[in-house]
Automatic annotation (TrEMBL):
The keyword Lipoprotein does not apply. It catalyses: 3',5'-cyclic CMP + H2O = CMP + H(+); 3',5'-cyclic UMP + H2O = UMP + H(+). One of its GO terms (molecular function) is hydrolase activity. Keywords: Hydrolase. Signal peptide: none annotated. InterPro entries: Metallo-B-lactamas, NDM-1-like, RibonucZ/Hydroxyglut_hydro. Counteracts the endogenous Pycsar antiviral defense system. Phosphodiesterase that enables metal-dependent hydrolysis of host cyclic nucleotide Pycsar defense signals such as cCMP and cUMP. The keyword Ribonucleoprotein does not apply. Residues 11-213 form the Metallo-beta-lactamase domain. It holds the Pfam family Lactamase_B. Gene3D superfamilies: Ribonuclease Z/Hydroxyacylglutathione hydrolase-like. This is Hydrolase glyoxylase. It comes from Paenibacillus stellifer.
Length: 277
């Protein structure tokens, strides 16, 4: 297994290649052909076979716009991923086109800005490639001694979000599933959805957990990292949209006078989640 870490300047997520005795699987395509080509070069440098199939964790641009650089290898994705990408068919990358996608809340202002930064003057080269194989609940791919299972999880970030479990290596790729919603209005979390996703991740008992815009974490590290967020979701579920009570109970849980900035932001996300019900 080979992982290339995320780059935040233009929202490049983690890319991974998982090799078995017969095939190599690519997890996500990259956010541009340039991103994909960088990963191809790294694979070649380390003597890793180029992928001959790929899976997409969800439809968002930073995970799919690099598909055209992978020489037509077959791609598997959730059925909703295919439907969402069909909406983007014909995207020409022009300012007018990006502005229209923002107006329709298909993408956000920040995504449009990242696309402009990633592609520069080459936006006319954006090509949306449709996945070849669509599934509903789960799909298993036997690479030869290594079995990868894609499982549809959904969630606030994107309704088509999937986990990728590499069974023999005990690695769980989470995509962006644990993130808040980023399109269709203010960022938000719903406590029930977040807790379901977290329980689903823990149930794998993986040795390593990999979120697409973070660093790989061991199982214990992952649980420690999410402990406060899990508690925040539980408090929000129990108290409802009572901002002051949520903050008060989180301060008591953390034994602190002030909540860290990321958790204060998280309180806002969960409060927005109540508005969307």
């Amino acid at each position: 297994m080979f992982i290339m870490h995320a780059e935040h300047e233009t929202d490049r997520p983690i890319l991974a290649a998982i090799s078995g005795e017969r095939r190599t699987l690519l997890m996500d395509a990259g956010n541009s052909p340039a991103h994909a080509e960088l990963f191809r070069a790294e694979l070649a440098k380390h003597g890793i076979p180029l992928p001959d199939m790929m899976v997409l964790t969800h439809w968002h641009w930073d995970h799919t716009f690099g598909m055209s650089a992978w020489n037509g290898i077959p791609a598997a994705a959730h059925a909703e991923t295919g439907r969402a990408m069909a909406v983007l068919k014909g995207l020409d990358g022009s300012d007018a086109c990006l502005d229209e996608l923002v107006r329709k809340e298909i993408i956000s202002d920040s995504s449009a800005a990242d696309i402009r930064k990633e592609y520069g003057g080459q936006r006319s080269g954006i090509r949306i490639i449709q996945p070849d194989l669509l599934f509903q609940d789960r799909i298993e791919l036997d690479l030869g001694g290594v079995v990868c299972e894609m499982v549809h999880m959904g969630g606030d970030h994107s309704a088509d979000s999937c986990y990728l479990h590499v069974r023999e290596d005990k690695v769980l790729f989470l995509g962006d599933a644990l993130g808040p919603s980023v399109y269709g209005g203010p960022r938000r979390y719903t406590s029930g959805s977040f807790l379901r996703l977290l329980a689903g991740a823990y149930a794998y008992g993986a040795d390593w957990y990999v979120e697409s815009h973070g660093l790989p974490m061991s199982g214990p590290e992952f649980r420690r990292d999410l402990e406060a967020w899990e508690q925040l979701a539980r408090i929000a579920r129990e108290t409802g949209p009572d901002r002051e009570r949520i903050i008060r109970e989180m301060k008591a849980f953390l034994k602190t006078e002030e909540l860290p900035g990321d958790l204060m932001q998280g309180v806002g996300y969960f409060l927005e989640g109540f508005k969307s019900r």
